[in-house]
Amino acid sequence: MVSTTMPTAIVTGASSGVGLYTTKALTERGWRVVAACRDIAKTDKALRDTAIARDRVLPMYLDLSSLESVHTFVHDFRATGRQLDALVCNAATYLPLLKEPKRSQEGYEISVATNHLGHFLLALTLLGDLAGSKRSPRLITLGTVTANSEEFGGRIPIPAPADLGELQGLEAGFKDPVAMIDGGPFKAGKAYKDSKLCNMIISRELHRRYHDTTGIVFSTLYPGCVADTALFRATPPMFQKVFPWFQKTITGGYVSQALSGERVAQVVADRGFENSGVHWSWGNRQKTGRDAFHQKLSAQASNQARAERLWDLSAQLCGVQTPTL
Question: What pLDDT does residue 299 have?
């Protein structure tokens, strides 16, 4: 084991946006970050451009859409000898203009494969590593208002609200011709929302299964609407111009990339965020000086029977067994 007093966090999707600025905020708090990304050269450039201390960041290749890549990443991380103290599941794919589903290496719809299944496998595989931390280990997942029907943004019917149905698509094996978790017709924007709803459900289920025995803190958060990140690079150019303006001037929900990263780092590292099994929010309308609070999640996100079935089906699709810790 490498001897170091620096705590170590893995941050997925750390080459841009929320992940990049989370990396910056954590390194400024004295953390070492493993930047898990698909493009190492892009990550190196982003670190230089953002003036992040390079000696505190280790970029490592990870393609969350590939289950094989997840296993390789875990192997490579363990080879560094570092103790894992936090895992930040941040990376996401959003491809709202697709008319037909794009598939992962395993044949699964790409948004769910990347955002949900890749992170699910990563989290389960690294649970034992986190449990070995002498600190207060945390597994933090980025949620979204658009997948929580308790909030206005989660009820917008364009293209449709998040809805997992009875998990019919996963029950059917989730391969061609199936592309949606509920087994319905393909809607790219809804696939993204569904995948993020899965993220929030699985975080609660991780808490229920493992918090008491491991001490790991499992929580999700919505840092505000970061309307100008690379997440929206596949949207129409006009949308990319109008959406940040709309969030800044009309809804008041806009949050800068730097502030979003600071908020994620707070949930990862700061005292006051030790509560497990909660969803942190700063509200849909941003107010100066507002503290984070526990946001209620929808009935879909809180349904225990559905959570257990989602867990079992996801484990089957990932070819992973539920760890005993």
Answer: 87
